[in-house]
Hints:
- The chain is α/β, with parallel strands linked by helices.
- It has helices spanning 34-37, 41-54, 58-69, 104-116, 154-164, 194-203, and strands at residues 9-13, 16-20, 76-80, 96-101, 121-126, 139-145, 165-176, 206-210, 218-225.
- The chain has a nine-stranded mixed sheet, sandwiched between helices.
Amino acid sequence: MNRDKEVFSLIQKKGLIYQLDEKGRIVRQKPWLGDLFAFVYDSAMANNVFPKKFGASMVKHYEILRSLFRDVTDKEIVELAAGNGDAVRFLNPENQYSGVDISTGLLRQAKRKFEAFGFRECTLYVADAASTPLADHCCDIAICNLSMNFFDDCEAFIAEVRQILKGNGVFYASVPVPERKTTKSVIHGTLFSEDELKEKFTRHHFLFEPLPHHNGALLYFTARLAE
């Protein structure tokens, strides 16, 4: 599926790249709580979101991701909804990394982390994951962890993933699904089942493959572009 992709003008400020509108003004993203509470993001994930909402282990989560990306080097990687730079926990710094998120507060944290961990090539965009300023077919790997349930338009997001991946590219994701949820706490956003996710990715010409990892409510999967 092809679609017309809007061409964005960009500006860099304090290490982050912003989109400009037709009048040369910075495009303001929808406000997100993380901009106000970015400084407690890590502790909130470790002490609340993982154990109480996902019924999962944050330690196991990163063990799984490290196992998936252990041998990945010298690749062009895009992380959508990149958050505060936790990709440093599982990605080799020899990869070329681009992160996209609507939260400037989290991306500022991410910038400091990537610099501290020695990533040679790291570019951070303040943008919507479903409408990025990235070039078509720009990456070998796209990643989205723990965020797909928050997107207003999942179909637009999947179309964007298809647009930025190279022909042999692969998308890695983790997301809570309702059939694995065991806690009584509410997981915010829209939860799609594994079957629903498979149907959506298949409709966009992906080969959807659930991965054999179990960690509370989280589903780990890949989606590869079909021939």
